[in-house]
Write a structure and sequence with these properties.
282 residues; alpha/beta; Rossmann fold; seven-stranded mixed sheet; 11 helices; globular
Length: 282
């Protein structure tokens, strides 16, 4: 189970933050994503240059940092995986991810599968068409209604090779699922061969002094019919991943994140202060 939300509103909101990053934050951009601007239309996105409004509040800047960072981190991990022989890329809960439209030359050897609910995929494909963009030949859409079939069944139906080293990304989804549903996805990933990897985000329980921001984000999602259900402490999540059978577990720690992606930024876009991104390799 990935998500049963239909036409996810939070996925569209996250995509808007990636689009805003292209025009209201200073270069070098953490995530170069011109395709997302096309999916919204250049005029409304370019309007943000002179009227960013609420997108420049401290809370909005922090959320935008997280959103663009997680996609950049996945891109970096995927490139490393491709260099060691990965030839399949599965984007779980893809939403309005644009990697298929902005893929660099090294990614052209990959077979890319976007997994999401059919209604979200229908809206995304309509936006791609309106933008005058085309889906590249190495990309496929795997529409799965999780009330009708499992992730494994959907992947098998779409000719995903379970004997090939594969990279999975899973961004902004685990908090909307039950822990049992998260475990089911991880077990499916573990059916792939050694060297396969999953990079995903998770929500930590609110720490002292951060309850307000966490509560606001979670309440906004709940108001859109997409409540947060599951939280993980990093230590407990690492134990879970290793107990399930992952050989290597690596968290993107705040200090490393700040040095690698946010150092000396003219716009002072803040680096995340909590650990919410992990990669696990078989």
């Amino acid at each position: 189970m990935i998500e049963e939300r239909r036409g996810s509103k939070t996925a569209l909101g996250v995509a808007w933050l990636r689009a805003a990053h292209q025009v209201i934050d200073s270069p070098p951009l953490i995530l170069e994503d011109p395709a997302i601007v096309d999916l919204f239309g250049r005029e409304p996105v370019e309007h943000l240059r002179t009227a960013p409004g609420a997108l420049q509040t401290p809370g909005a800047r922090a959320l935008r940092s997280h959103v663009v960072l997680r996609s950049r981190y996945v891109d970096d991990r995927l490139q490393l995986a491709e260099g060691r022989g990965t030839r399949q890329y599965v984007i779980l809960g893809a939403g309005y991810d644009t990697f298929i439209l902005r893929q660099p030359e090294w990614a052209k050897a990959l077979r890319i599968y976007e997994v999401d609910h059919p209604s979200t995929q229908m809206e995304k494909r309509a936006r791609i068409s309106r933008a005058g963009r085309t889906v590249p030949p190495n990309a496929s859409f795997v529409g799965i209604d999780f009330e009708q079939e499992s992730l494994k069944e959907g992947l098998v139906r779409s000719d995903v090779r379970f004997d090939a080293q594969t990279f999975f990304s899973w961004l902004g989804v685990t908090m909307y699922l039950t822990e049992a549903a998260v475990d089911a996805v991880l077990r499916t990933v573990l059916e792939f061969p050694a060297g396969s990897e999953i990079a995903f985000t998770f929500a930590q329980p609110a720490a002292s002094g951060q309850e307000g921001a966490m509560r606001v984000i979670a309440e906004r999602a709940a108001a859109m019919g997409e409540p947060w259900l599951t939280y993980f402490e990093p230590e407990a999540l690492e134990r879970k991943l290793r107990d399930l059978g992952f050989a290597q577990v690596e968290f993107l720690e705040p200090a490393d994140c700040a040095a690698r992606y946010f150092a000396d930024r003219a716009d002072k876009l803040p680096a995340p202060t909590r650990t919410t991104i992990v990669s696990a390799t078989i």
